[in-house]
Amino acid sequence: NKIALPILSGAIRFNAKIPDIIGTLLDFQKIEASEATLKAVFDNAMDGMLVIDIKLNRFIMANSAACKMLG
Q: Does the pLDDT at position 9 exceed 60?
């Protein structure tokens, strides 16, 4: 793609690759939508669900059903 940069006495023209910003933004929107769906399923599940970090030996997340089960 050719890009023209305006300057006081004309324009400088050069060849450059322009990143696909729109494609990247659409990818981020898809990821956000996917994360929202996963969060809704996790939060509203009737079964208790836990996310545990086994290296740190601690709970990362628990849904409300797990909290009810474990107190």
A: no
